[in-house]
Amino acid sequence: MKELPVKSISEIDNVKTRLFGMNEQQIMELLTQFDEPKFRGQQILEWLYARNANSFGVMSNIAKSLQEKLATHTQIGREDFLSCSESPDGTKKYLYPAGTGRFIETAYIPDDERATLCLSTQAGCKMGCLFCATARQGFQGNLDAGRIVNQYASLPQAERGSITNLVYMGMGEPMDNIEAVLQSLAIFTHKHYMNLSAHRITVSTIGVLPGLERFVLESKANLAISLHSPYDEERRHLMPIQQVYPIADIIEFLAKTSWSGSRRLSFEYIMFQGVNDSLSHAKELVRLLNKLSCRVNLIHYHHVDGNTLTGSPYPVMEQFQLLLKEKGIMTTIRRSRGEDIQAACGLLSTREMLAIQTPDSSTSQSSDY
Ligand code: SF4
Questions:
Q1: Cα–Cα distance, 207 to 254 (Å, whole number)
Q2: CA proximity to 234, closest of 282, 276, 185, 202
Q3: How far is the CA of 83 from the centre of ligand 1 (A)?
Q4: Ligand 1 centroid vs 126 CA: distance in angstroms?
Q5: Is residue 165 a contact partner of residue 114, using CB atoms and an 8 Å limit?
Q6: Would you say 364 and 77 are in contact if contact means Cβ atoms under 8 Å apart?
Q7: d(CA 62, CA 81)
Q8: Whole-structure pTM value
Q9: Which residues contact 305 (CB under 8 A, 6 or more apart)?
Q10: C-alpha pair distances (Å), 187 with each of 3, 8, 52, 77
């Protein structure tokens, strides 16, 4: 049976072409249609990404006639967040539109000198991990590069200016939307656009091998693999992807790549009480990872309705950490943040939000011209 290509949400939207998220090739194709010189493309992209333009009128080095054409046929495509909830620990969760009737969440996590922004790559997710709130809402579509970058670009200035790290760990599986993820990474790191360091960006995956292969070749960002169990059968129960791309194959592939230098490889390990938190799990984990230069992040689980899993107590996590450290694996325990506003790891879900009626959730912020 022939699979139909999954459409990105902006392809489904019945609105003017959104420029935000375009790369050089895409904007040049558009300018060719307008019978305009291609070099204008670079200028327009710099206005969008480096100079934060939110209207064509401010693009002072673009001829008025081209500004008018752009305003008639396209829109900037930046989108304001719809709501923000804040935890007493400073964590904030932003709700963004993602096309008509669809929403995504973005978590802002300040921590002393650092502030991390956790980006979504899909509305919902089709991977069906047992422990995950996003899985329970099903899959509504891929985000295009513009809607990934917009989660950072349209934050309030105070938050955006404080961000030191970006993580692709929100809703969705990044390697299942690899084209848009790579394009967003290129916009974030291009020296004439947002100029963020790739070493401060981490993309997380449960191990979708074809996307992962492209990511390793075509980007310089850090990689985090969601592992959660070193045992095949148990991992399959927690994460159906194990059936398609076993973790052993993922590790074999990663072992062929160099992870020395500034590009980092880490493994995320959510700890479920009485499921994957025994010392034999820790020993098996050491065996599995022994060929890799990597670190392990142990994560406290936040219960979501619909399963019987609970988080391991912190003393159990500390024992687990100790064994890994003794075997030479750098291991940290992630502090829990934003649980009260459902912004903590595995809790992002807009299921409840889908019923929200907004006047037009797909319009861009303010006027484009
Ligand atoms: S853990 Fe990640 S990949 Fe698995 S269902 Fe949730 S969002 Fe999708």
A1: 11
A2: 276
A3: 23
A4: 8
A5: yes
A6: yes
A7: 29
A8: 0.90
A9: none
A10: 30, 18, 13, 15
CA distance 361 to 98: 8
Q: How far is the CA of 348 from the centre of ligand 1 (A)?
A: 10
What ligand 1 atom has the least distance to the C-alpha of 122?
7
DSSP state of 339: G
Query: Is 345 annotated as catalytic?
Result: yes
Q: Out of 36, 105, 173, 268, which one is annotated catalytic?
A: 105
Q: How far is the CA of 302 from the centre of ligand 1 (A)?
A: 14
CA dihedral (67, 70, 75, 77) in degrees, to 10, reads: -80
Look at phi and psi of residue 364 and say left if phi exceeds 0, alpha if psi is from -120 to 50, else beta.
beta
Residue 113, token pair as written in the block: 């000198």
Cα separation values, 323 from 95, 125, 280, Å? 40, 34, 10
d(CA 181, CA 172): 11
> Does 276 sit in the ligand 1 pocket, CB within 6 Å?
no
In ligand 1, which atom is closest to the CA atom of 226? 1
pLDDT tens for each residue of 312-367: 999 999 999 999 999 999 999 987 676 666 665 566 665 444 433 333 333 222 22
Q: Are 199 and 252 in contact (CB under 8 A)?
A: no
- 352 as an active site residue: the answer is no
pLDDT tens string 45-78: 999 999 999 999 999 999 999 999 999 999 999 9
Element (H, E) at 209: helix 209-218
Q: Using a 6 Å cutoff on CB, does residue 132 contact ligand 1?
A: yes
The structure tokens listed for 249 are: 């194959």
- For the cut 50, the answer to whether the pLDDT of residue 3 exceeds it is no
Minimum-distance ligand 1 atom for the alpha carbon of 173: 3
Q: Is 127 touching ligand 1 by the criterion CB < 6 Å? A: yes
Q: Which amino acid is at 277?
A: D
